TrEMBL record, chain A:
<keyword id="KW-1133">Transmembrane helix</keyword>
<dbReference type="InterPro" id="IPR017938">
    <property type="entry name" value="Riboflavin_synthase-like_b-brl"/>
</dbReference>
<dbReference type="InterPro" id="IPR039261">
    <property type="entry name" value="FNR_nucleotide-bd"/>
</dbReference>
<dbReference type="InterPro" id="IPR008333">
    <property type="entry name" value="Cbr1-like_FAD-bd_dom"/>
</dbReference>
<dbReference type="InterPro" id="IPR050415">
    <property type="entry name" value="MRET"/>
</dbReference>
<dbReference type="InterPro" id="IPR001709">
    <property type="entry name" value="Flavoprot_Pyr_Nucl_cyt_Rdtase"/>
</dbReference>
<feature type="domain" description="FAD-binding FR-type">
    <location>
        <begin position="4"/>
        <end position="106"/>
    </location>
</feature>
<dbReference type="Pfam" id="PF00970">
    <property type="entry name" value="FAD_binding_6"/>
</dbReference>
<feature type="transmembrane region" description="Helical">
    <location>
        <begin position="104"/>
        <end position="129"/>
    </location>
</feature>
TrEMBL record, chain B:
<feature type="region of interest" description="Disordered">
    <location>
        <begin position="1"/>
        <end position="24"/>
    </location>
</feature>
<feature type="domain" description="Oxidoreductase molybdopterin-binding">
    <location>
        <begin position="36"/>
        <end position="182"/>
    </location>
</feature>
<dbReference type="Pfam" id="PF00174">
    <property type="entry name" value="Oxidored_molyb"/>
</dbReference>
<protein>
    <submittedName>
        <fullName>Molybdopterin-binding protein</fullName>
    </submittedName>
</protein>
<dbReference type="InterPro" id="IPR036374">
    <property type="entry name" value="OxRdtase_Mopterin-bd_sf"/>
</dbReference>
<dbReference type="InterPro" id="IPR000572">
    <property type="entry name" value="OxRdtase_Mopterin-bd_dom"/>
</dbReference>
<feature type="region of interest" description="Disordered">
    <location>
        <begin position="193"/>
        <end position="213"/>
    </location>
</feature>
Length: 246, 213
């Protein structure tokens, strides 16, 4: 493994994804190709010497060379997400190191298994890197993204995901709204449950490799339900963001 | 010249900078971190083993293990994903108590903790002795829940928390430092938060003189 030195990236674009989520594109002079699912560590330094770090998943695919996109949800009273959302503009510099993470990654090429991706909220970020990589590298793996969001305005990457699904018969997007669904919605309107996961698995031609990312509650329950469907433990990879909520 | 993010300052005071290792922040809740599904373990089949470079391996059933002398521990814990939690309340069995039950072979310098569900992590034996490590059975006065590693979890609070193997099943004493699950994936072989040994590449740079082998 190569040295993970801190480097300074320059913000080249900031795009709003939802009212509370922004994507920051950073150009890096020492860019290294990542595996979809990996993250960067970002470090903020104050004038008085105080420093703090947080991890952010890479949203961009490794095909997008020389830069990384990080998608950050604004957390109420969040120290780092608050600064990124309010204090950072295009042209500013940020210190980061990566890519990091060797388990919650999609070793593309090596894996022929279909992909079952389950996301809650901003947990979609590393899964988006997998889908973008799959698309850009023209990988044949059939894939389903089951994406749980609370309300219609919280669907991160909505247009891109819908376009991807429309253009690619081997990719299915399943949304479920846990609080408020859009007007006229006929799809799922509840938390991810056994029936929904069975539906997602049945859309795939064979036993899937599963990646589950989101808040702890969702990840715990989805991983347990996938186990109950008879999937082996090593086919279920999980990553949790943020507080436990209790 | 040090890099500064203009306009950035700490959002909330911590309990004193000396309690927080570099890059960490304090959290009040207890985040859960696991690579896969949480194993459910039947206490009737549970056992804890000490094996490898010992004269005679030992194993305890759940009842036998719970009959061992227990102590209270109130450590600060530090997760490599950046959170730290102060003054956590545990009850469990000190590793010193467990190690009294075996005679170590002289080559034993490292341990591999292994868990139900297949997780492993490696540690220098020196980091497990002298009141530095315990097997946690209770958290905040209640049996440790499966998400947090119950029924029993290795707790080595002075190292990053991935070294504190959840669902622990035993320790294998070894003469060589064999990487465990995260270590194999590029994380530090020692994981000292005060030296910010997060990744394998941080080990080369860090001062390892505090490693009392
Ligand atoms: C591997 C990994 C990948 C990640 N990827 C992403 C990603 O792609 N996108 C993303 O948005 N996030 C991601 N995260 C989460 C991210 O790292 C941060 O945890 C998140 O941005 C919140 O940080 P913050 O500084 O804004 O909030 P913090 O300041 O850490 O606060 C979080 C919450 O806890 C509360 N809180 C914290 N400390 C205290 C205290 N002392 N007293 C009272 N309340 C407190 C705050 O009020 C707030 O609600 C990832 C995390 C990991 C581990």
């Amino acid at each position: 493994m190569s040295r993970l030195d801190w480097q300074i990236g320059t913000v080249t674009a900031i795009t709003p994804d939802t009212p509370r989520v922004k994507t920051f594109t950073l150009s890096l002079s020492r860019w290294t190709a990542h595996r979809a699912g990996q993250h960067y560590d970002l470090r903020l330094s104050a004038a008085d010497g105080y420093q703090t770090e947080r991890s952010y998943s890479i949203a961009s695919p490794p095909e997008q060379t020389g830069e990384v996109a990080l998608t950050v949800e604004l957390i109420a009273d969040g120290e780092v997400s608050g600064y990124l959302h309010e204090g950072v503009a295009v042209g500013d510099q940020l210190e980061l190191r990566g890519p990091i993470g060797g388990y919650f990654v999609w070793p593309a090429g090596a894996l022929a298994a279909p992909l079952l991706l389950v996301a809650g909220g901003s947990g979609v970020v590393p899964l988006m890197a997998m889908l973008r990589h799959r698309q850009r590298a023209k990988l044949p793996n059939p894939a389903v993204l089951l994406f749980s969001i609370r309300t219609p305005e919280e669907v991160i990457y909505q247009q891109e995901l819908e376009a991807m699904a429309a253009a690619d018969p081997a990719f299915t997007l399943l949304l479920t709204y846990t609080r408020q669904a859009p007007a006229g919605w006929t799809g799922h309107h509840r938390r991810v449950d056994a029936a929904m996961l069975a539906e997602a698995v049945a859309l795939l031609p064979g036993a899937p490799q599963c990646y589950v990312c989101g808040p702890t509650g969702l990840v715990e329950s989805v991983a347990t339900l996938l186990q109950a469907q008879g999937l082996p433990d090593d086919a279920i990879r999980t990553e949790r963001f943020g507080p436990t909520g209790n | 010249m040090p890099f500064i993010n203009k306009g950035f300052h700490a959002k909330r005071p911590t309990e004193g900078p000396n309690k927080l290792p570099p890059g960490q922040y304090e959290t009040q809740d207890f985040p859960v971190l696991t690579a896969g599904p949480t194993p459910r373990i039947n206490l009737a089949n549970w056992e804890f083993r000490l094996e490898g470079l010992v004269e005679k391996p030992v194993k305890w059933s759940w009842n036998e293990f719970n009959a061992l002398p227990q102590q209270d521990f109130n450590p600060d814990i530090h997760c490599v994903t950046k959170w730290s939690k102060f003054d956590t309340k545990w009850r469990g069995v000190s590793l010193d108590t467990l190690l009294e039950h075996v005679q170590l072979q002289p080559e034993a310098e490292f341990a591999l903790a292994f868990s139900y569900g297949g997780y492993t992590t490696n540690l220098p034996l020196a980091d497990l002795r002298n009141g530095q490590a315990f097997i946690g059975l209770q958290y905040e006065g209640k049996p440790l829940t499966p998400e947090h590693g119950g029924p029993a979890r290795l707790v080595v609070p002075h190292l990053y928390f991935w070294k504190s193997a959840k669902w622990v099943q035993g320790l294998r004493l070894m003469g060589v430092n064999k990487p465990g699950f995260w270590e194999e994936a590029g994380y530090s072989m020692r994981g000292d938060p005060w030296q910010e040994q997060r990744y394998g590449s941080d080990d080369d740079a860090a001062d390892t003189s505090s490693l009392r082998l």
